[in-house]
Specification:
The protein has 114 residues and is an all-alpha fold. The chain is 78% helix and 0% strand.
C-alpha cells in the first residue's frame, strides 16, 4: 500500500485468500450472468415488437424505456459506473435522456408530417 507497507498487519494464509477470492469470483460471475440474461430478454422483447409490427406513441415510449434501461444496466454493471461518483452517473443519465428525447421528438415530428 502507501509508503511500501502492507494493507494488513498480519499474514493471511493462501487457502483463505484463495477460497474468498474464488467465492467472490463466482458470485460476481453469477451476477453478471443474470444481468446479461436480463439484457438478452429485453433485446428479445424489442425484436418481437418489431416483428409483430406494433407501432404508435405508446410502443415508441416503451421501446425508448427499454433502451434507457439497457443502457443504464450496461453502464452500471459492465462499465463499472455503479461504483463511480454521482457526477459520472449523472453525465451518463443525462446523455441517455438527451438522446432518447431527441429520438422521441424526431418520431413525433415525423408523425405530424405524415
Amino acid at each position: 500500500m502507501a509508503h511500501g507497507r502492507f494493507a494488513l498487519d498480519h499474514s493471511v494464509s493462501i487457502g483463505v485468500c484463495d477460497s474468498v477470492g474464488r467465492k467472490m469470483y463466482f458470485q460476481s460471475n453469477r451476477f453478471s450472468t443474470v444481468i446479461w440474461g436480463i439484457l438478452i430478454t429485453l433485446t428479445l422483447i424489442t425484436y418481437m415488437v418489431g416483428e409483430i409490427g406494433l407501432a404508435g406513441k405508446g410502443v415508441m415510449l416503451l421501446l425508448l424505456l427499454i433502451a434507457f434501461t439497457k443502457g443504464q444496466m450496461v453502464a452500471n454493471y459492465f462499465m463499472g459506473l455503479r461504483a463511480a461518483g454521482w457526477l459520472w452517473r449523472a453525465i451518463i443519465i443525462a446523455y441517455f435522456l438527451i438522446v432518447g428525447g431527441l429520438i422521441a421528438i424526431a418520431y413525433l415530428v415525423g408523425l405530424q408530417r405524415v
